[in-house]
Design brief:
22% of the residues lie in helices and 41% in strands. With 88 residues, it is of the alpha+beta class. The strands form two sheets. Strands 1-2-3 form a three-stranded antiparallel β-sheet. A two-stranded antiparallel ribbon has the order 4-5. The longest helix has 10 residues.
């Protein structure tokens, strides 16, 4: 998997999910989820704006550790996140 550094945002019932386009062996590309920013659209937009600064290895780590049920917000240095506490 190799990221193409193209990002998008989807609205889901669980929040704003940022997706990244990745290439598989140069044959085809696929859009995979990176992080769920809950219902904070601003966080998702800001992450997409800065995501091109991340190393390819970090983007792949984020894709592999994605969990739709764990919304996050950006925390500290680019690529670090803090889980959002959900209110019931």
């Amino acid at each position: 998997m190799t990221p193409t550094y193209r990002f998008g945002r989807h609205t889901t019932p669980k929040g704003y999910v940022v997706v990244a386009e990745v290439m598989h062996n140069g044959d085809y590309s696929e859009w995979l989820p990176v992080r769920n920013f809950g219902f904070c659209q601003y966080e998702a937009v800001e992450f997409m704006r800065d995501a091109h600064k991340l190393e390819a290895k970090r983007i792949i780590e984020l894709v592999k550790s994605f969990n739709i049920d764990r919304p996050v917000k950006r925390h500290g240095k680019l690529g670090n996140f803090k889980t959002i506490k959900l209110e019931l």
